[in-house]
Amino acid sequence: MKLFDMNIIHSHNFEEDLNIIEGYERVETYTSDDMLEDGSREKIGSYTYHIYNTSHFLHDQSLSMTADAISGDELFMLDIIMNGEHEFQMTSDEMLAPIGHVFIEDKFDYYENEKLILQKLMAYFEYISLDYIAVIATNSESASREKKSVISFLQIKLYKTLGFEYLGGYEKKHQVWIKNNN
Fold it and tell me: Out of the domains of life, which is the source (predicted)?
C-alpha cells in the first residue's frame, strides 16, 4: 500500500547500567484523504536501536560486553565495525546507532516505503548529530525463507543507494553496513 503521509513517534530511554540510549520508533501513516480528515492513523511498523557514545566506553571490550548484553546480532554488528577487516575506523568521541528489530506491516512492506522510512530515520539521526548508523542486511532470497529476520529493510541495493558502506559479514546474509552522517 502506498503511503499518503508518515509520522514517526520517537521514544528514548537512558539505560544507565549499559551506558546507552535505547530508542523505539513507531511509524504511523494516513493512507487516504478520509483518514486525514478524521485524524486517525494506521500503524506501519516499528523499529528499535541503541545509541552508543564511544567516549563513554573505556575500550572496545567494554563496548562489546554492552552489545552482547543486548543481543547476539548487536554484538555481531559491533564486532565487525570495531574489529573487521576494512578501512573504517571510529574515533573515541563519536556516536553510533545499530538498528535492530525492524517490523513493517505486510501491506506496507515494499521498497519505496522502506526507502522513505529509512530516509526519515537518517534525517532524524543527522539532526541529533549522530555520527553513524549500522544495519545488518540480508538479501531478498534468504529473507523470503526467513521472514522473521531481524531486519526487514532487506534490499542491499537500498543501502547502497542511500550511501551505506559494506563492512563485512556473510555473503548470503547478515551483511553489516554503515552510514557516515558526517
Answer: Bacteria
The domain that holds 136 is classified in CATH as 3.40.630
**Which grid cell is 176?**
553489516
Cell of 148: 522473521
Is residue 37 classed as helix, strand or coil in its secondary structure? helix
Of 1, 12, 4, 5, residue with least CA distance to 124: 12
What strand order describes the sheet that includes 132-137?
5-15, 20-30, 42-53, 95-104, 132-137, 175-180, 165-169
C-alpha cell at 98: 545499530
Cα gap 7→133, rounded to integer Å: 20
Average pLDDT rounded to a whole number, residues 106-134? 88
Q: Which residues of 37-57 are buried (b: 16+ CB within 10 A; e: fewer)?
A: eeeebbebbbbbbbbbbbeeb
Q: Which helix (H) or strand (E) holds 66?
A: helix 60-70
Q: What does the pLDDT look like over 123-144, one tens digit per residue?
A: 999 999 999 999 988 654 444 4
- Structural domain count, the chain: 1
pLDDT (0 to 100) of residue 131: 94
